[in-house]
Design brief:
rod-shaped; alpha+beta; 1 helix
Length: 80
Amino acid sequence: MLYEYCCSGCGKREERNTLISERHNQVCECGTPLKKLIHRIAVHIFKPYWDDMMDDKPVYIETEEQKKKELDRRGLQPRE
């Protein structure tokens, strides 16, 4: 995984591609142990595309005519 480190001795910042098990045991070229930097991340939550088509109440369809009307109302085509 890619981690960003900062050296408290010389102030150098660098990214290193290291194993998860070795992420805390990194040493700078000057010999000082590196501190792993932690960044604030942005989390984006996306709604599924079908969520906009869902209603609050379920529709119970008993006949083909009701099915056709409901599909037309939603702008959908019947499955084959």
